[in-house]
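Revision sheet: structure tokens.
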Amino acid sequence: MLHRAARLQRRRFAGTEVRASSPQGRFAGGAAVLDRQTLTRIEALGKHLFYRFASGDVLHVHLGLFGKFRVRTRPAPEPSPNARLVLENETDHLHLAGPTACDLVTPDDEEAIRARLGPDPILASSDGADRLAERLQRRSISIGAALLDQKVVAGIGNVYRSELLFLAGIHPLTVARTLDDAAVADVWDRSVTALKDGERMGRIVTVVPGEMGAKSARELTRGDRLYAYKRDGDPCRRCGDEIVSADADGRNVWWCPTCQPPSGELVQRR
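Predicted:
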């Protein structure tokens, strides 16, 4: 959802002078550089955010598993002493805590970060499917594991990987390099649609509403929004078989054995 965060933060902060501080102290030097600067642009790429300032300085943020933003209209509560970064303008307050990365980067640093990432479905580049296929051709890991590798495709998390593979009818333990171009293009196209929908709605919904007796995605309850993720032991919404799960890469992936039958070489589970 970082593209959504970038979009909403642009509305509040882009084009304004900001006060910057680091209550925690770990970004005190960087905050001092950014303090009283004009923030011109906020861009997302996969799980990375880039904040551009009128001076040419670039702030790079990667939330990781534990990083969180809080954005509030001022006056806001006093920031927590654990806040890595606080940005404020005349109307709004941004609080960042627990990120994996929060640092000032050079243009070369930023280019290196961008170069090592796979295509981002939200940005929907016309060559996205080809770039994804090229990266998968070199992977002997499972497609379930590959979709979480940001060097393969940028921005897909654990929920989306299970859901996209369910929708594409692909067994998640299929060896990534064995997928044909048509299957890869299907996964790419579905990822573009699903992630753009999630960015727009602010929630992950992959179920076709009509299959749950709803007229729109917004009518679905929290428990009815997904096909496979964390539904092990529950009946498949399409065929009734039991959803199962397995460790794909240190994290579980979920699938339906009937809707996603093995159709090629599978990674051997330990």
